[in-house]
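Supplementary Methods, section 5.1.

A reviewer requested that the exact input to the structure prediction be made available. We therefore reproduce it here, unchanged from the version used in the analyses.
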Amino acid sequence: MPGLYLHIPFCKQACHYCNFHFSTTLRSKPAMVAAILRELELQKDYLGGAELTSVYFGGGTPSLLDIGEMEQIFEKIHALYRIAPDAEITLEANPDDLTKEKLRDLRDYTPVNRLSIGIQSFFDDDLRWMNRAHNAAHARHCLRDAAAAGFRDMTIDLIYGAPTTSDAQWAENVRIAMEEGIPHLSCYCLTVEEGTALAHFVHKGSALPVDEEKAARQFEYLQNQTEQRGYEHYEISNFAWPGRHARHNSSYWSGSPYLGVGPSAHSFDGRSRQWNVAHNARYLAALEAGQVPFEREVLTPAQRYNEYVMTGLRTMWGCEKASIEAFGVPFADFFREEVELFLQNGTVEQDETHVRLTRAGKLLADRIAADLFWTDTEA
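The structure derived from this sequence is encoded token-by-token as follows.
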């Protein structure tokens, strides 16, 4: 399931919690599009000519691209790569960008067939605290406008655990999402990432750290409500109607190869990872000189094992025992020994073929995975 990711590194303003690479200065947008077109050419052999099953515009805020810029990018992709007829083609978008005209143009002039909309909350006090560019009215209207424009495949982002998000408000956020008939939800716990405005506020004492008990309570509420409404909790942060899982993101969790284009974008070929420089000016200068500015790391067996455990446990399928065995001894023996404690305390369960997290274990996913990692001291 090879995929193509394009990082569009521009935003109208900086959300307080975000640590992704972006710039709020749009002057270099035309030059960035030209550089991305050049990188697509230079990287055309990275996936070995395999047919793309997904194309994902992320960022940043890809919905800041105008239709002409998107048409240029798609023309280049179609000229260089084979794309599956049923490929999932996703555009991340902010509600304030999704005007009726923009939605109509996306439908009529681009092959985009899936929208990933950064709602985050349907409450103005949450959105102001996060420093989002849209308001609650934008959040509601864009969903209905997108549906009216013919977009049936949509996902929205929601954030829980924020200090302004009471349990009642979180319940309403979940209710509205389901009432609008959104087939896929990506719900993230607020985290304080170093280098963000939120981290600065917390360090200064002008913002409270995340209330972990409240966040856990809101996550459990989310699990209950989605289960009752027929959503599959197929990855820790992702819930979807059956058959509506995100194909592109699923390729990350399953270890499939993908190519990332644009500043800060990552690529994976099954054995190595590479990542582009997270600096717009340096990226543009390198591509102008005909070079892709990236660093590369060949993964060791231990790193591949750790990544498999980390991503596998996050999914509803869990880690396949045969895949763990394929890493060989001592990895398989280590995994079996370490997982025993979690089987005993009820945070992990197993059947004949897989080991997976229980409902209780999903609250501790990162901690459990870390305890199952192979470290240098064990080598």
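The chain has two domains: 3-253, 301-378. These observations are discussed further in the main text.
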